[in-house]
Amino acid sequence: MPATPSAESAAPSSKGAPFDAHDPLGIDDLLTDEDRAVRATVRRWTAERILPSIADWYERGELPGIRELARELGSIGALGMSLTGYGCAGASAVQYGLACLELEAADSGIRSLVSVQGSLAMYAIWRFGSEEQKERWLPRMSAGEVLGCFGLTEPDIGSDPGAMRTHAKRDGTDWVLNGRKMWITNGSVAGVAVVWARTDDGIRGFVVPTDTPGFSAPEIKHKWSLRASVTSELVLDEVRLPADAVLPGATGLRGPLGCLSHARYGIVWGSMGAARASFEAALDYAKTREQFGKPIGGFQLTQAKLADMAVELHKGILLAHHLGLRMDAGRLRPEQVSFGKLNNVREAIEICRTARTILGANGISLEYPVMRHATNLESVLTYEGTVEMHQLVLGKALTGLDAFR
Q1: Mean pLDDT per 10-residue run, the chain (405 residues)?
Q2: What does the radius of gyration of the chain's CA atoms come to, in whole angstroms?
Q3: Cα-flanking dihedrals φ and ψ of residue 145, to 5°?
Q4: Active-site hit among 62, 145, 384, 388
Q5: Which neighbouring-strand residues pair with 185?
Q6: Of 133, 209, 200, nearest to 167 (Cα)?
Q7: Superfamily of domain 27-142
Q8: Environment class of residue 51 by beta-carbon count within 10 Å: exposed (0-12), middle (13-18) or buried (19+)?
Q9: What cofactor does this protein call for (predicted)?
Q10: What residues does each domain of the chain span?
C-alpha cells in the first residue's frame, strides 16, 4: 500500500515564490516563453501608444489616427494573428487571447478594432473566401494597410440575423445589393466590408470594396460607450458587384455565426483585461487612500470586495486559458465559447462596478480607468450575442430543447 503522507509533507510549501497579488493563482506558470513574449509586446505597445491618450480620446468621443494605429498593430503581428499564411502571424489561440486581454486592458475600443479586423473581416475571407479574394485582401489587412468591417447586424435585426432584410439579387453575372447595416465597428474607415445578405439561394457573404458606387458608411455619434472607437452604419444603395465578390465557401447562417464564434473567443479574454485594469486601479487606490486614520484597504469590507474581485478575475482568466487550449487542439465548441462570453463579460462588469465603489467619487473620473471600462463593457455585454442569447445557447445544449422561439 502507498505510504500515508505526513502532515508536514502534505502541507503547502512556504519556500516558493512570494504571493503575487497580480497573479494569485500562478497562472503565468501555464504560459510558454513565447506566450509571455507576445503578451509583453502587446502590453508595451498599449503602454506607449494608447494609455497616455485614451482618456482624452474617450472624452472627445473619437479615435484619431486609427489608420496609423492599424499599421502599427500590423507591424507587431496583432491583426489576424491566429490565422496562417497571407502575412498573418499564425499565433496560437492562447497567444491571440493574451493579446486581446492586453488590448482591452487599455480600452475595449482598441480590442474591438483588432477583433473586427482579424476575427470577423479577415477570418471570413480566410475561412470562406476564394484564393483570389485571400491574395487580394489578407496581406494588406494583416499589415494594417487596409481596414475591414463586418456587416451583419441591421437597424431592426440584432439577435435574429436570419431575419435580415439586406438582399442581393442577380443581374446578369453581377450581384446588386440593397440594405442597411448598423453598429458596425471600423465601418467609415474600412477599405473593404464583408456584408451578409439574403439571396434566392439563402444568406451569402460578399466582399465589398468600400469605394464601390452606392456604398456609404456614415459614422454613429453620441455614444456613451466605446467612445474611442469608430462605429458606423452601412448603407447599400444599388451596390453592383461582380460575380466573384461572393464568398464561395459560405451559404446560410453557418458562415456569419462561425465568424462570430471566433470573435467571441477574443471577448472571453478581452473582458478580463478590462476587469484586470479596474481591479488593479482599485487595489492601488485602497493601499493609499486614507479614511479614519488608515488606508481603506485595511478595512474588512474593502478587503472582502478585493478578495471577491480577485477570485472572479482569475477564475475568468483560467476559463479563457482553458478555452484557448481547446481551440488550439481543435476541440472548442460554440457552446463553450458562449459559456466563456456569458460568464466573463458579466463578471467583468461586476468587477468594474465594485472597483468604482472602492474609488468612491473618484471612480467616475477619467483620471482612473474604471468608469470608462464599465461603460465600454455595457456594449461588450450586448454585441456578438446578448446575455439572453448565450443563456439560451447553453440552455439548449443542456436540455436538448430549443427555447429560442
Answers
A1: 49 71 95 98 98 98 97 98 97 98 98 97 98 98 98 92 95 97 97 97 96 97 96 98 97 93 96 98 97 97 98 98 98 97 98 98 97 98 93 96 90
A2: 22
A3: -75, -30
A4: 384
A5: 231
A6: 200
A7: Acyl-CoA dehydrogenase/oxidase, N-terminal domain (1.10.540.10)
A8: middle
A9: FAD
A10: 27-142, 148-252, 255-399
What tens digit of pLDDT does each residue of 60-95 get? 999 999 999 999 999 999 999 999 999 999 999 999
Give strand pairing partners of 148: 192
Are the beta carbons of 106 and 224 closer than 8 angstroms?
A: no
Angle at 309 between CA 376 and CA 29, to 5 degrees: 100
List b or e across 326-345, with b for residues whose CB sees 16 or more CB atoms inside 10 angstroms.
Answer: bbeeeebebebbbbbbbbbb
150 bridge partner residues: 194
The total of other beta-carbon atoms located within 10 Å of residue 400's CB is 7
What amino acid is encoded at 4 in this protein?
T
Q: Is residue 384 annotated as a catalytic residue, yes or no? A: yes
Q: Do domains 27-142 and 148-252 have the same CATH topology?
A: no
C-alpha cell at 359: 474609488
Task: Give CA–CA dist 154/161, Å, rounded.
Answer: 8
The CATH number for 148-252, chosen from 2.10.70.10, 3.40.50.300, 2.40.110.10, 3.40.1080.10, is 2.40.110.10
pLDDT (tens digit per residue) in 95-132: 999 999 999 999 999 999 999 999 999 999 999 999 99
Q: Which CATH class is domain 255-399?
A: mainly alpha
Q: Which 8-state DSSP code applies to residue 321?
A: H
Q: Give the whole-angstrom CA distance, residue 120 versus residue 48.
A: 27
